[in-house]
Amino acid sequence: MNAASVARRSAKLDTVGHGRQPSRLRTGPEFSVIIPVHSRTSQFRDALDSVLSQEFPNFEIIIVTNGSSPETLSIIGEYNKLDDRVRAFFYSDNTGNACRGRNRGIIEARGEFISFLDSDDLYLPSTLLDARAAFIRYDTDLVAGRASWIVDGTRIVDNMQTGSTNSPSDVTMALLMRDNPFMTCTVHVRRDVLLKHGGFRPSQRYLEDLELWLRLAHRGCTFHYENKIFAKYRLHSGNTEIDFITEKDFWFRQMWLIYDTPFDSWGI
Description:
With 268 residues, this protein is of the alpha/beta class. The chain is 34% helix and 19% strand.
């Protein structure tokens, strides 16, 4: 699906809720929590439970499979029956990263705000409530928070240990050109902003999240980095980025080449 067809489709779907404050006219969910999944079980259940336990209840969960195993598909069926806020979309092949799943979720979303959560990470009970408060208070396009790490010992990164956190910083083009200040599981974005400027580029196999943040900043979108922990990030041997991290320099160069070019394909 190309960007033009997405814009036409979205114009038909979105009839309320275009104000900067959460719309009182909206009848659907305020947040759409997008969870792409390949093949996980217990960690996937934990991720889903962390969303269903939110203090702010007006959300939907959009699961998008990526060549998932029968065990994972069974969990999706179970949660789909458990709560009608859970929706699922299915791909039988594995693309190797989360771009397609996140993009499909953005297109299918009914919420005013898009929230990203990977299938092995966890929200805190107040995550959506705190993100919503920040959108209202700061009238911004993107809200992110801090992350707390869960380290199981199967992957060692520097001195990271369970309970380690990152710190908020001023989000500038200069920072985004060299580093990713956010964990994607802490990021929430207005859906209309993503429909206007595009989602995750399928061609950017690694650092695809940073390329999106950089593109949004380049186009004048506003960011707020909340000094609260929004999510717990699992650091383990199953992290998808392990497949690409040795090519990090290459993907940084690719990002610098394309972030200011038109977004032309959602890859869904």
